[in-house]
Amino acid sequence: MQQEIICTNCPMGCHVIVTLEGDQIVSITGNTCPRGEAYARAEVTDPKRTITTTVGIIGGGVLPVKSDRAVSKRRISEFMEKIHQVYAVRPVHIGDKLIEDLDGDGANLVATQNAE
Amino acid sequence: MFDVAIIGAGIIGGMTARELSRYQLKTVILEKCHDVAMGTTKANSAIVHAGFDAEPGTLKARLNVQGSEEMEQICQDLGVKYQRNGSLVIAYREEDLPMVQVLYERGLQNGVKNLAVLNQEELLALEPSLSDQALGALYAPTGAIVCPYELNIASVGNAMDNGTELMLDYQVTGIEVQEDGFLITGTGEPVKARFIVNAAGVYSDKIAEMVGDHSFTITPRKGQYMLLDHDCVGTIRHTLFNVPSKMGKGILVSPTVDNNLLLGPTAENQEDREDVSTTQEGLNMVQQNALKVVPKVNLRGVITAFAGLRAVGSTGDYILTSPVKGFWNAGGVESPGLSSAPAIASYLVEHMAEQGLVLEPKPDYNPYREALHAFNNMTIEEKNQVIRENPLYGHIVCRCETISEGEIVDAIHQNPPARDLDGVKRRTRAGMGRCQGGFCGPMVTEILAREWNIPLEEVTKFGGASYLNVGKTREVKDHE
Amino acid sequence: MNKVDLVIIGGGPAGMGAAVAAYDAGVRDILVLERDHRLGGILEQCIHNGFGLHRFKEELTGPEYAWRFEKELHARGIAYRLNTMVLDITPDKVVTAMNSEEGVFQIQAGAVILAMGCRERPRGALNTAGTRPAGIYTAGTAQRYINIMGYMPGKKVVILGSGDIGLIMARRMTWEGAKVQMVLELMPYSGGLTRNIVQCLQDNNIPLLLSHTIVDIHGKDRVEGVTIAEVDERRQPKMETAQYVECDTILLSVGLLPENELSKKASVPLDPMTSGALVDQRRMTEVPGIFACGNVLHVHDLVDYVSEEAEIAGRGAAAYLGISGENYGAEDQAHITVKPAKGVRYTLPQRISAVEDTTVFFRVTDVHKAVKVVVKADGEVIQSRRRPRVAPGEMETVNLNAKTLADCTGKTLTIEIEEV
Question: Could you read off the pLDDT of C249-297 as tens digits, one per residue?
Fold first, then answer.
């Protein structure tokens, strides 16, 4: 089986072809640099994304937050559910942790804006 | 029991209400929309016509000239912008020149003052941005421009200040003729009134039918417009008409009192009384005409396009009739309806008096309405005075038109109060500028929610189902 | 009247970057005027990540990027006023501003930096026919609703325009539970970053329809649907391809316009191609002492470049004020005109002098693979560089060293694209 991945590392947007036999990657072609290969490999096995969204603030308003590292793309809706349950308390500052270990793999949910 | 119930809060209803509010009468305006000025009044050419168009001897001719003469004073009393910029009716072909002469003669017969026929040289000297294809024109220096919804809002507001009631979201569904007057039913408590003024615009034939009057019908005629940004006005000063054809007065180019450039309207008869959508063909036609009149017009400066419906009556003239004693039609008020509105109002009130409406002057009648602070036109000292009194005037909400929070809050609390986003826009011009509310829309929505003390999701663009958002992304928690 | 050495209009990334750079070049008397209730500008609502890769070598969200600069302002004690609207600037640099506390006040500035940013092109500019119901928003307005106010503009969305804000909002609304039906793009290519097409659209199975547009809008009170159609090479809709798509919300992401109303009041001449001021390599406009940087000058693809440009303007203003010791005198006047040629939409700065190495920014008109960027002086090639790929959505640069430029004094430089 072949999968076509558009590399997003730079504006080149290489179309990288990943050939699979079962779960095993047998070849990666079409990339122009090693970053392309690494990206395509990750996209095929377990693609990761940084979540950016908001949480409610007690008393009203919303606070922008992010996962402080990329999390499994396939589980984003599960994480969003979790994030919806959390509320920030003023004052809150950039970098403050709102959920520790969001994904069971060490990614935390942190504030990305100050709310005094 | 009301003395008079006016059906429709457009310019005719508003002006009539104001005229009635001079007297010791109990008057109510019933309006089916969420605000006043929601029909023909909010989307027309914004012209106070000099009065050379209408066939001499018609109501249109008489009331246009009369209304046009009264307009400046009324605008001054109501704090409404009015500009006597003069009109030009331009001929582009040799065979159109005789028509200029015909209009001139007609204008004289109608009693229009200071008319003149201009040759090409005189015309281009007066309006240098015109195409050199323009051969000559009729010049009517008494032609003027006004903002129709501003005038409408002000007239209803002034009537309310003098005791008139306004019932919004009240759609009339039936009228019962009773011995001592009328019982009006609709989407609210029934209303009893001794007199009715039917100023229902494109629905005026339907309202007339409710008292058994089938003497006229209304055909909605769509007019599409485009509005251009301030810097597109350039040197254009006059309202620029083309020599009329069978299809009406044709498409015009005119500055507005708010210093935009207005292009339009098309003239398309239709059956639908609600459809005010624009079409690609219509907008193209409007643009092509503009290029013909003022070839250098910058069409990239278009801020918005919109359409309105003229209520074209089946008789060709205004239908100011009383099919049943006490019930007065103001039907078929198409162009020059805005110009005629003050005169139509006086006409109706006089005729109701003949039918027994007692006009006892109100001792405390106040003909003046305080305009919202025209903050833009103030000196620095005046601005500082206003900001000291109300710091909200120091907070600009609409960047494009420089409109402050103070003006918006005042518009929400003045008669008739602004209840929705478009209502604020029409009263203050917040959102009327080049970004069309992109920046200020959400802020005005918040101000409306705060001042009316309603949840943000209940604020609408113009009432009904015109909701702006579907609710919060996160539930609000007050405590952990 | 109060006198201030340097007044900066706008406290977004451009204004803050310029303030810090001017301070570091020796200017101490600086005042930043910001209309919002906090510094940061539009970045405060851009809560997605991807900012700062060039500058900080890490991926920040918009508010985090802004905060880095705000901290720099605080550390230097640079003065700023919030909730303050600038009403007027005169060519001799009298700035009239207003807020609730101080009312209207005037400042005589030694130098002014314009950093007002840009705004989105609204529906009116598109001449899209149809009704005018509620539910038509620019992507940025929707972004403000969701990210700042915490309200959802709608549930079923069609997005017109595949610029980055449109793409970002497609994902944002999807993550908040809306159904994004499709993104339509008038051009045969997207103006957005590949990364956003992949992560915002493909990740969420949102179709991107190139060479498509909205030809009619339906719904009386609230949007009920749109008629979409494919367009031909001349971007005219092919009505036989028209189809109805149900939606309650239309988001427009159809371009940004530099917000130059104040510049016009100050009689600053504008470049019709950028809709921003004509500037020299230090970002001084043709009105002496008035500088411009960031999206008010030309719309940038990355905020990192805004910061870079802001620093050039900040240092330029310091030099103009005679504070940094650099000379902004006669020999430093701009002598070389820079113009776009084949395949290039605009160049910036539009005039340069030969005193220093200068980077010229430009945007191309079409997508190309494998091209040469050719710089000519009065028609003679002076530099040629290969590029693997260029696209209108991405800012391109050429670096010209002072020595090369010295030979070009009095000449017109052109930048063009040659297919290889």
Answer: 999 999 899 999 999 999 999 999 999 999 999 999 999 999 999 999 9
pLDDT for position C329: 56
B479 touches chain A (CB under 8 A): yes
| Distance (Å, whole) CA C129 – CA C218 | 9
- B478–A58 CB contact, under 8 Å: yes
Contact A55 B473 (CB under 8 A): no
Separation between Cα atoms, residue B122 and residue B144, nearest integer Å: 20
d(CA A68, CA A66): 6
All structural domains of chain C, each given as residue ranges with its CATH number in brackets, are 1-120+256-333 (3.50.50.60), 122-254 (3.50.50.60), 334-420 (2.60.40.10)
Domain count, chain B: 2
| Pair B260, B396 in one domain | no
| pLDDT tens figures, B15-34 | 999 999 999 999 999 999 99
- Look at residue B407 and tell me whether its pLDDT is greater than 90: yes
Question: Looking at CA atoms only, how far is residue B303 from chain C in angstroms?
Answer: 5
Say if residue C353's pLDDT is above 90: no
Whether residue B413 sits in one domain with residue B292: no
CA angle C289, C54, C15 (to 5 degrees): 30
> Residue C311 — φ and ψ, nearest 5°?
-65, -40
B408-412: long-range contacts (C-beta < 8 A, 24 or more apart)? B408/B444, B408/B447, B409/B447, B409/B451, B410/B372, B410/B373, B411/B372, B412/B447, B412/B448, B412/B451, B412/B452
Does some domain include residue B175?
no
If you average pLDDT over residues A52-57, what whole number do you get?
A: 96
Range of the domain at B255: 83-144+220-308
Best-predicted range by mean pLDDT among A15-19, B250-254, C28-32? Answer: C28-32
Among chain A, residues having any CB pair with chain C shorter than 8 Å are: 6-8, 11-13, 49-54, 56, 61-62, 64, 66, 73, 76, 80, 94, 112-114
By the 8 A CB rule, do C7 and C94 touch?
no
- Which of B334, B244, B352, B254 is closest to B64 using CA atoms? B334
One domain, residues A34 and A71 = no
**Active-site residue, B49 included:** yes
pTM for the whole structure: 0.95
- pLDDT confidence of residue C420: 84
DSSP C58: S
Within a domain: residue A103? yes
Task: Indicate if ipTM > 0.90.
Answer: yes
In a domain, B246, yes or no: yes
pLDDT tens string C410-419: 899 999 999 8
- For strands C30-33 and C118-120, give the pairing: unpaired
Range of the domain at A17: 2-45
Same domain, B300 and B399: no
Catalytic residue among B49, B230, B351, B413: B49
CATH code for the domain in which residue B293 is found = 3.30.9.10
Size of interface B-C (CB pairs under 8 A): 144
Q: Are C69 and C22 in contact (CB under 8 A)?
A: no
Q: Which residues of A touch B480 (CB under 8 A)?
A: 58, 87, 89
Reported for B360-366, long-range contacts at CB under 8 A and 24+ positions apart, including other chains, are B360/B23, B360/B24, B361/B22, B361/B23, B361/B24, B362/B21, B362/B22, B362/B23, B362/B24, B362/B162, B362/B163, B365/B21, B365/B22, B365/B162, B366/B158, B366/B161, B366/B162
- DSSP strands (E only) in chain A: 2-6, 15-21, 24-29, 48-49, 52-57, 62-67, 71-72, 87-88, 97-99, 109-111
Percent of chain B whose predicted confidence (pLDDT) is above 70: 99
* B121 in a structural domain: yes
Query: Does one domain contain both B286 and B414?
Result: no
Determine the pLDDT at residue B372.
76
